[in-house]
Amino acid sequence: MSHSFDEISQQLKRRHRKSARLKWISMGALGLAGLFLVLFFADMLSKGLPAFQQAYINTEVRYTEEASRDGRLAFEEELLPLISRTVVRVIPLQLRNNPEMIGTSEQRWMLATSEVDQYLKGHRNRLSDEEKAEIDERVATGQVDLRFNKTFFGSGDSKIAENAGILSAVVGTIMTMIVTLLISFPIGVMTAIYLEEFAPDNRFTQLIEININNLAAIPSILFGLLGLAIFINFFGVPRSSPLAGGMTLALMTLPVIIIATRTALRSVPDSIRHAAFGVGCSRWQVVRDHVLPLAMPGIMTGSIIGLAQAMGETAPLIIVGMVAFIPDVSASFTQAATVMPAQIFTWSGEPEQAFVEKTAGGILVLLSVLISLNAFAVVLRKKFERRW
Amino acid sequence: MQTNQLLLLFCTVLLLLGLVAFFVGRAKAARVRASGTAMYAQPGQYAWFAVLSTAGPAVLVGAVGSLLLLLLGANIPPMYLLAASLVVAAAGLAVGVAQVKPHFHARQAIERVIRWVLTGAAMISIFTTFGILFSIISEALRFFQMHSFWDFITGTTWNPGASFLAAAGRGDGSSAEFGSVPLFAGTFMITAIALLVAVPIGLLSAIYMSEYAPQRVRTIAKPVLEVLAGIPTVVYGFFAAITVAPIIVNIAGFFGLDASYNNAVAPGIVMGIMIIPFISSLSDDVINSVPDSMRQGSLALGMTKGETIRDVVVPAALPGIISAALLGMSRALGETMIVVMAAGMRPNLTANPLEDMTTVTVRIVASLTGDQEFESAETLSAFALGLVLFVVTLTLNLVSVLMIRRFREKYRVNNL
């Protein structure tokens, strides 16, 4: 007998070990997911943070008569391969606006080429050994330095890596989001009010509900096909415009807002409705004066989250043509524009090494906007959430 | 005049008429009331009714008119339309003000109008679905007139070749082949890799969070996992192409294997990471709603905790878990940016995930971003692919919903 007891307790030990193993494995799985997240953010930060700095060269600029025709002539010849090609246009433009400067000269920090920039940051570059030696010498005397990258935040796209910025994409995103919100917020809230407060429980209502859940799960690229075929080809909305993109994204955001609003409306207790009906309010008065104000924080939270989702969406916008090359910032709803994710996509396709950094920098900007939006939504919910 | 100038004019006049309606209506109602007659509604409500009867029909006439204009071509000059809708607005104003009578139920009339407006808003989501269906099907049908449906479904070579020349009137386009099998093979390969990553990690995380983790860990871990779902896919695509793909190539090289930089593994793994939260959060909910009596019964029979989870809880939650996996699968099938940026462009029928292969969504993007004529077979093929994608994801979603419903009915839980 005792032998068998031993066996059983051995077996029991094995079973408990096995049980403990499941706990560790499942914990490891969660840890792995967390690890992915940490690695991902570390990778993005290490790739993107350098984009916020840019190499500049401190040099003498001679505003001569020749320089007003070709900006390159304002510099010492040996520096020319190191200074950004943008001076060809920048210096003459400056001299045309301030003709009195012709004949003078000044010490100035000029934008360096992306090759110099990449060399200083220790990345792959195409500089020759003499050029590297030249730069090292100037770095030692403080004539070449990495400084805050104003161009990145202050200008639009460019094919010249050091001159490319994200501003036109930011403006495009804002314009597109205005359109999206103006369409999807009222329609979404009205639909949710109808379904929660007005609709009878019949076939038609069920159809709408199934339909909304289904819309939430349709791949986003199909909304792009809809935008292309209906908005652009049928209604003639200008291609690539924030209007076309915003309308497409609005349809995508609609289910998110509807579902969030319904949850918010449902969390308002019935006693409030009963009290309002009791003093003689009509249905619409109950909703407008009592239920809606109480549900507002929940609706706002849901809408902000939906907006953040729409802001990161790329695929449908590519289909409606919002991957245009936009060098100048334009705040128009009907002209071609680009948005942040599309700009990231465009940059990621550029072969130059310097654009890898730009892409990651753009990603950091996008992620910080999204994280702040979501954090704002969470704070809003924490601050105004009411437990009934 | 420009269209937007007309629109501006229309809006301004309508706004003015609305203001007139509001103040005239309110003043009249106040006068009637001041004379001592009891009224069914407040002066403000009469005023709002007057505004609605001014603006509503006018906007309706304007909208229907411009829709007809678009549908039938420019038969009516826009100026006439503008004039017509403004006349309707003026008539509405007259009717609205005339209705300010003691026996008129203005509040109920407003209520009826609002109910119609809300119903209209709810219809828009239905229109969206029909819009998607209509736009995809009509263009896909045009494609199937050029190329046979059977070849599209069973063909093993995707080679749009010179079809854009045929649309431009040169060449006959007969060399173009649209066999979608390699595209679907690539899509399913990448989706399978994604599910291989996401289902074990998502399910095990859900098990840990619902069965083991202390409350404090749960409140932190859940939102952290949700962050994974909130990262834009274009960012994942960049991550897959720049960071993960070279790692995969290096690892494959270490084992003496030859991997392409556009291999299917990198987008698959990253897509798997992306859908972890979809699977874990739904599985978590499902496992939480397995009734405790089942756990108690199992533990009372002497099962260890691990055995209870493996043999009782997970099998009971299986319909919900499968439904979560199906939802994740439908996400992965329709995912675009990750594969556009990290997977290849070459339709390639192979079972080796280290080779480059392309997917349905990549083809859709590629054929719609080129400079081809919209009428060309290559452009239209995007809609045919979209149609198949729509049908597949719709089926997956419906099956998933049905399974969840079955689970809910079996255990009578209402919070799923």
TrEMBL record, chain A:
GO molecular function: phosphate transmembrane transporter activity
Xref: InterPro entries: DUF3333, MetI-like, MetI-like_sf, Phosphate_PstA
GO cellular component, one term: plasma membrane
Keyword Transport: yes
UniProt main location, coarse: membrane
Classification via CDD domains: TM_PBP2
Membrane topology of this protein: Multi-pass membrane protein
Example of a GO biological process term: phosphate ion transmembrane transport
Highest rank taxon of the organism: Bacteria
Domain ABC transmembrane type-1 per the UniProt entry, residue ranges: 170-375
Keyword NAD among UniProt keywords: no
This protein's UniProt keywords: Cell membrane, Membrane, Transmembrane, Transmembrane helix, Transport
Residue spans crossing the bilayer: 21-42, 166-195, 215-237, 243-265, 317-340, 360-380
Localisation: Cell inner membrane; Cell membrane
Family: Belongs to the binding-protein-dependent transport system permease family. CysTW subfamily.
Protein known as: Phosphate transport system permease protein PstA
Organism from which the protein derives: Vreelandella aquamarina
UniProtKB/TrEMBL annotation, chain B:
UniProt KW DNA repair keyword: no
Pfam families per record: BPD_transp_1, DUF3708
Occurrences of domain ABC transmembrane type-1 (ranges): 184-400
Protein topology in the membrane: Multi-pass membrane protein
Record GO cellular component, one term: plasma membrane
Subcellular location: Cell inner membrane; Cell membrane
A biological-process GO annotation: phosphate ion transport
Superkingdom of origin organism: Bacteria
Ranges that cross the membrane: 45-72, 79-101, 113-137, 181-206, 227-252, 264-287, 308-327, 382-404
Record's keyword terms, sorted: Cell inner membrane, Cell membrane, Membrane, Phosphate transport, Transmembrane, Transmembrane helix, Transport
SUPFAM superfamilies, per the entry: MetI-like
GO terms, molecular function: phosphate transmembrane transporter activity
Protein family (similarity comment): Belongs to the binding-protein-dependent transport system permease family. CysTW subfamily.
Main function: Part of the binding-protein-dependent transport system for phosphate; probably responsible for the translocation of the substrate across the membrane.
Protein name stated in the entry: Phosphate transport system permease protein
Organism: Vreelandella aquamarina
